[in-house]
Amino acid sequence: MAVALILASIVLAYLMGSIPTSVWIGKLFFGIDIRRLGSGNAGTTNAFRVLGKLPAIIVLIIDVLKGLAAANITYIIVSYSIGSQQFITMQLVLGMAAAIGHIYPVWAQFRGGKGIATLFGMTIAIFPEIALISAGVFVLVLLLTQYVSLSSIVAGLSIPILIILIFQIDINNFLVPILIPILILLTHQKNIKRLLKNDENRIYIFRKKKS
């Protein structure tokens, strides 16, 4: 496989991930830049706070699809056997490129979201069983705590752990699963500090806020 084709695919995945869903929806339908309101983040949670439930659901779906579509570029560009270590490695690389694009979008002054939804989309494409488990982890933590940030962190960290434990991927493929928690912890630094100070905002999606 030509190096030029690999690099072009990574760039394409990054550009797909760079689509700033919440920013464009906020500007097009509400006349606002979501990054100037709420937490200042361009992800689903802030879209929920600033734009409402329906726009947030649309943002979530599109951001997930970015990761899924990026990982699936592999089916078009490579000749590796589907499911082989080389094939999975390429899917992981392209999915990570999309996640980095989501966090640092070229179309939105490199100020994007935190990458969780796009990473989840990548996981759906490669490891659907793990995606289902991590989604369950997210919902469980959210029901117990009402902290979206904590739910995202725990669910996100469960992905590389499950990839390694369940699929026992080749040692040469460990780099990407190791990068996932690093990326999650870096993008959630402020949330982690607020959680430790018990100062993080809660979102009551499944029940009403206590008075």
Description:
There is one protein chain. 44% of the residues are buried. The radius of gyration is 17 Å and the shape is globular. With 211 residues, it is mainly α. The protein contains 11 helices and no strands. The protein has one domain (3-196). It has helices spanning 3-17, 21-30, 44-50, 53-72, 74-77, 85-103, 116-126, 128-145, 148-167, 175-187, 189-196.
Task: Give the topology.
Layout: H1 3-17, H2 21-30, H3 44-50, H4 53-72, H5 74-77, H6 85-103, H7 116-126, H8 128-145, H9 148-167, H10 175-187, H11 189-196
Summed up:
The protein is built from 11 helices and no strands. The protein has helices at 3-17, 21-30, 44-50, 53-72, 74-77, 85-103, 116-126, 128-145, 148-167, 175-187, 189-196.
User: What share of the residues does DSSP label as strand, in percent?
Assistant: under 5%
Decide which structural class fits the backbone.
mainly alpha
Order of helices and strands: HHHHHHHHHHH
Assembly state: single chain
Described by strand count, sense and barrel closure, the largest sheet is:
none
Number of spatially distinct domains: 1
Gyration radius from CA atoms, angstroms: 17 Å
Helix content: 55-70%
